[in-house]
Design goal:
Number of helices: 10
Oligomer: single chain
Structural class: alpha/beta
CATH superfamily: NAD(P)-binding Rossmann-like Domain
Low-confidence stretches: none
Helix content: 25-40%
Largest sheet: 8 strands, mixed
Strand order of the largest sheet: 3-2-1-4-5-6-7-8
Shape: globular
CATH topology: Rossmann fold
Mean pLDDT: 94
Number of domains: 1
Bound molecules: zinc ion
Distance between the termini: 42 Å
CATH architecture: 3-Layer(aba) Sandwich
Strand content: 15-25%
């Protein structure tokens, strides 16, 4: 464990000063490896807060380039970035905010191959910032297979949700959640989204990542947080494991 420099102690002072948060927890952030899949509205917020909070290594994954319609939500990108790879611009912008963090980039789609399993295994946590059901299901599968914790979220129209999956016994997975909410494949492209919504939801994902990485605050397995921006309200629901889930259910459970 490396000692923090005076500069780092000064930099992270407001976090280290928090009750029950200390240098040891800040060190855990410095040692952490986090993969952010999707550098869109959610991913820009997540990456910005994790880099600025002192997470040591961020891997940014996104196959796309910046386009004009991204700019209202994707706060790491500027007008002059249109046409450039999102992961490249994001890395440059994040390095300006915190040069002590290591940034790795993959301009690629996630697939079920062994290469992606190996990439997942190297992470402490995966943050799903994609906006399609099929991508989320695939990331859920890979996280279940590799037992890497997952923070999933969605933001569409004026609603967003966040839920973490840590693979404890009887804990639901994303597939259990999507089973409850049906097979809607809608995305922001068809349904629209109000720009700050992705900032709120991405910030919640970043907060959950920091809490998980440092074991700070209470654990909330199976807790689903819903933000209804139209009605200025947050709601939490307890999601149960689907006993017939094709991903996480134990076929011959003895319980
Ligand atoms: Zn499941």
């Amino acid at each position: 464990m490396m000692a923090f420099s005076d500069n780092a102690l000064l930099r992270y002072d407001r976090q280290i000063t928090l009750k029950d948060f200390d240098i040891e927890k800040q060190q855990r952030l410095a040692d952490a490896k986090v993969m952010i899949i999707g550098v869109g509205g959610l991913g820009c917020a997540v990456a910005t807060y994790l880099a600025s909070s002192g997470v040591g290594q961020l891997t940014l994954v996104d196959p796309d380039t910046v386009s004009l319609s991204n700019l209202p939500r994707q706060i790491l990108f500027s007008e002059s970035d249109c046409g450039k790879a999102k992961v490249d611009v994001a890395r440059q912008q994040l390095a300006l905010r915190n040069s002590a963090c290591q940034y790795l980039t993959l301009q690629a789609y996630v697939d079920d191959s062994i290469i992606w399993q190996q990439r997942f295994i190297q992470q402490d946590i995966i943050i799903d910032c994609t906006d399609h059901l099929l991508s989320r299901q695939q990331i859920n599968r890979l996280c279940f297979t590799t037992a890497i914790p997952l923070i999933s979220a969605g933001a569409i129209r004026m609603e967003g949700y966040v839920m973490s999956f840590t693979w404890q016994q009887n804990e639901p997975c994303y597939e259990c959640l999507s089973h409850l909410f049906g097979e809607s494949t809608g995305s922001c492209v068809e349904n629209g989204v109000m720009a700050p919504l992705t900032g709120v939801v991405g910030s919640l994902q970043a907060m959950e990542a920091l809490r998980y990485l440092t074991n700070y605050g209470c654990r909330t397995p199976g807790q689903f947080l819903l933000y209804d921006a139209m009605n200025f309200s947050f709601t939490t629901l307890k999601v149960r494991q689907n006993p017939n889930c094709k991903i996480c259910a134990q076929p011959q459970s003895k319980d």
